[in-house]
Specification:
With about 140 residues, this protein is an alpha/beta fold. It has helices spanning about 5-20, 35-45, 90-95, and strands at about 1-5, 25-30, 60-65, 70-75, 100, 115-120, 130-135. A 7-stranded mixed beta sheet has the order 1-7-6-2-5-4-3. Helix 3 (about 90-95) links the parallel strand 4 (about 70-75) and strand 5. It starts with a strand and ends with a strand.
Length: about 140
C-alpha cells in the first residue's frame, strides 16, 4: 500500500489500538523509510503517553501504557546476531508485552516464528510516499 507520512501515522495508530500483547512486530526498511515514525504511531495507539524516541544508541527503550509494557528495540548497531542476548532478548521475547523491533534482520534466526512482519520502502515514483507491506 502506498502511504504518505500522515497515512503511515494513522495506520500505525490503528494498528497499535488493535494490538494485543504478547506481540512481536518486526519492522524492516532502509534508513529514512519511517520505521521510527511508525513505532511512535503504534505506541500512541497502544496508549503510550511518554515521548517515543529512537533507541539507536541505547538499543532498547521500555515504555508503559495502561495496557502493559512496550519494548522498542533498534538493532541497527549490532554486528552479530549473538549480541541480542546481552540486550535481555530472551526476557523481552517472553514478556507479556508489545515488542517493536527496528532492523530485525540483525537478530538472525532469533525472532519468534509468530512475529508480525512489516516492511517499509521508499516509493520510487514519489519521494514523499512510502510503500507499506504488513503481514
Amino acid at each position: 500500500m502506498q502511504v504518505s507520512r500522515e497515512q503511515l501515522q494513522s495506520w500505525g495508530e490503528r494498528f497499535g489500538h488493535a494490538a494485543r500483547a504478547p506481540l512481536v512486530v518486526a519492522i524492516t526498511g532502509e534508513l529514512g523509510t519511517g520505521k521510527t515514525t511508525l513505532v511512535q504511531a503504534i505506541c500512541h495507539g497502544y496508549g503510550v503517553t511518554d515521548p517515543v524516541t529512537s533507541p539507536t544508541f541505547a538499543l532498547v527503550h521500555e515504555y508503559r501504557s495502561q495496557r502493559g509494557p512496550v519494548y522498542h528495540l533498534d538493532l541497527y548497531r549490532l554486528r552479530n546476531p549473538s549480541e541480542v542476548t546481552a540486550l535481555g532478548w530472551d526476557d523481552i521475547m517472553a514478556a507479556e508485552a508489545l515488542v517493536l523491533i527496528e532492523w530485525p534482520e540483525r537478530s538472525g534466526d532469533r525472532l519468534p516464528h509468530d512475529h508480525v512482519p512489516i516492511m517499509l520502502r521508499h516509493d520510487p515514483t514519489d519521494v514523499s510516499l512510502r510503500i507499506l507491506l504488513a503481514g
